[in-house]
């Protein structure tokens, strides 16, 4: 089953970007906040300002406004763009040279600082220098089997390390001192500080497009053999199961909890939580897929598009509506890192409660019970499904939005009396378990009164046990129910527990009257005899 996790919307129309230049193609993109930069095949940089307009159902529309256009003076394509927002600089890779330009004016820095001899670059998002006025950049050098590490400042660059590799590197990502490299025949992790290398797994750079992407602290995503998206830590191990891609994936992005992959025809969306494919979006002629601080951008050679994630809470509710409970729970639990703690706790409890009612409706009572307790369900939500079990004096109103779609037990079971009986038996068991726990705190009257009604209706042996021990059964509701079901002995116990001994004698007398022994009790109801003595007399007569 598919999940709608993303909506594909246009960000920059081809006409706005290229005009009538049919031979000019998009080569790379960079996004920093509202600023979108596009590098093109004619050696130009285009700067747009993106404005987002939220739409119903959680999606959005984007309007791009052109800010600047700058030709770098080269006849070669702009192959990579990286924003260093702390420095207000844009790193531009063109013709094997990395130029520093101002993020707004797109003018090169006056010093003319640049890094020469670069084939590819990666920013270190987990820098080791601790200097807030520089960024760390790793490049694949035009020198054979060489990577270099630079410190980049506002108007100067400084090389800090040059490292040889076992084979020619094709792609690189960096985290701290660790480089993750796609070589000609394998992926490796290389600590450029110590020089220690760790082999990961084989790879054929001549047959497949390499993918090396940092996805978090000390963790990378790689395009592995057999069409697998493989996760690897800097220790050379995998802490997540792989995701199954097609053999010809050309790009990947992360928007937690999802991994997105681009091939010749589709964008696929997999969950990092359970590794299942959740969505497939048709997309032809795409050649760029990247994520920028939670924003996922995909591009063809002519247009730029944004994959707008639907709010996680809406995705969870859609899964629950489809009764895909386990997927909803996995997604809800994984949303912890995306939602503030207090908001998450409220959301997660509600999801557990909703999931509990789905299991309940399917008569999966063990699962329902665990979810109700884990979700700290207000027990009155459950009792209210059963007609007449809540006390008439109760002011309880159900949660809004509702936790389920059922008016009452009759609708849920569609009148199937066997199912009704099973549901009542479950509630009887559940209330008996929770009545002495914190679940019933503040609701003891509702719990005990409902339990009394269930016991009486089922002619259950525990009815008398409930009434001779401490309980919170509401007298008026309980008395009427016991009388309705002709539980006179229990009614007498109820009155006695509530200190109404005179009233307690009459139900027991009625009980004995029903047995035909009415003579000795003709005046018992109005006698002044003490309750214990009168009650014992009734019991002895009943025994006769």
From TrEMBL:
It comes from the Eukaryota. Keywords: Cytoplasm, Protein transport, Receptor, Transport. The keyword Zinc-finger does not apply. One of its GO terms (biological process) is protein transport. One of its GO terms (cellular component) is cytoplasm. InterPro entries: CNH_dom, Vam6/VPS39/TRAP1, VPS39/TGF_beta_rcpt-assoc_1. It is found in: Cytoplasm. The keyword Cytoplasm applies. Its main location: cytoplasm. PROSITE patterns: CNH. Residues 23-296 form the CNH domain. PANTHER family: CNH DOMAIN CONTAINING (PTHR12894), TRANSFORMING GROWTH FACTOR-BETA RECEPTOR-ASSOCIATED PROTEIN 1 (PTHR12894:SF27). This is Transforming growth factor beta receptor associated protein 1.
């Amino acid at each position: 089953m598919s999940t709608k996790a993303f909506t594909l919307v246009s960000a920059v129309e081809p006409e706005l970007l290229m005009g009538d230049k049919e031979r000019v193609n998009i080569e790379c993109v960079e996004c920093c906040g509202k600023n979108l930069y596009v590098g093109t095949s004619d050696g130009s940089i285009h700067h747009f300002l993106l404005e987002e307009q939220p739409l119903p159902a959680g999606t959005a529309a984007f309007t791009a406004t052109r800010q600047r256009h700058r030709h770098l003076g080269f006849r070669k394509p702009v192959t990579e763009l990286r924003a260093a927002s702390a420095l207000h600089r844009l790193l531009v890779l063109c013709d094997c040279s990395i130029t520093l330009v101002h993020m707004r004016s797109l003018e090169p820095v006056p010093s003319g600082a640049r890094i020469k001899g670069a084939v590819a670059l990666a920013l270190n998002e987990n820098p080791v220098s601790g200097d807030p006025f520089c960024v760390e950049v790793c490049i694949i050098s035009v020198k054979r089997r060489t990577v270099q590490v630079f410190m980049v400042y506002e108007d100067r660059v400084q090389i800090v390390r040059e490292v040889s590799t076992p084979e020619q590197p094709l792609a690189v990502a960096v985290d701290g001192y660790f480089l993750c490299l796609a070589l000609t025949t394998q992926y490796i992790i290389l600590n450029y500080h110590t020089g220690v290398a760790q082999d990961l797994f084989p790879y054929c750079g001549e047959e497949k497009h390499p993918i090396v992407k940092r996805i978090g602290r000390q963790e990378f995503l790689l395009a592995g053999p057999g069409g697998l998206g493989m996760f690897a830590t800097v220790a050379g191990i995998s802490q997540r199961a792989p995701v199954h891609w097609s053999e010809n994936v050309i790009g990947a992005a992360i928007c937690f909890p999802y991994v997105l992959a681009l091939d010749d025809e589709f964008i696929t969306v997999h969950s990092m939580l359970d590794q299942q494919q959740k969505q497939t979006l048709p997309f032809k002629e795409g050649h760029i897929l990247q994520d920028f601080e939670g924003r996922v951008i995909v591009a063809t050679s002519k247009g730029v598009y944004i994959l707008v994630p639907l709010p996680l809470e809406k995705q969870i509710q859609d899964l629950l509506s489809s009764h895909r409970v386990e997927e909803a729970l996995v997604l809800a639990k994984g949303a912890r890192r995306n939602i503030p703690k207090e908001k998450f706790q409220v959301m997660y409890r509600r999801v557990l409660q909703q999931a509990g009612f789905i299991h309940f409706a399917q008569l999966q009572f063990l699962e329902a019970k665990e979810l109700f307790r884990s979700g700290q369900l207000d027990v009155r939500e459950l009792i209210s499904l059963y007609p007449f079990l809540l006390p008439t004096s109760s002011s309880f109103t159900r949660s809004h939005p509702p936790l389920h779609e059922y008016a009452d037990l009759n609708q849920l079971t569609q009148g199937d009396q066997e199912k009704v009986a099973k549901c009542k038996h479950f509630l009887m068991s559940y209330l008996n378990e929770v009545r002495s726990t914190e679940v019933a705190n503040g609701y003891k009257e509702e719990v005990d009164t409902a339990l009394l009604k269930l016991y009486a209706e089922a002619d259950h042996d525990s009815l008398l046990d409930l009434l001779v021990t401490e309980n919170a059964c509401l007298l008026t509701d309980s008395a009427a129910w016991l009388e309705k079901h002709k539980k006179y002995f229990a009614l007498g116990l109820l009155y006695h527990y509530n200190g109404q001994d005179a009233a307690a004698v009459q139900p027991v007398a009625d009980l004995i009257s029903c047995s035909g022994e009415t003579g000795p009790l003709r005046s018992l109801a109005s006698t002044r005899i003490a309750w214990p003595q009168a009650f014992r007399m009734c019991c002895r007569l009943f025994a006769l």
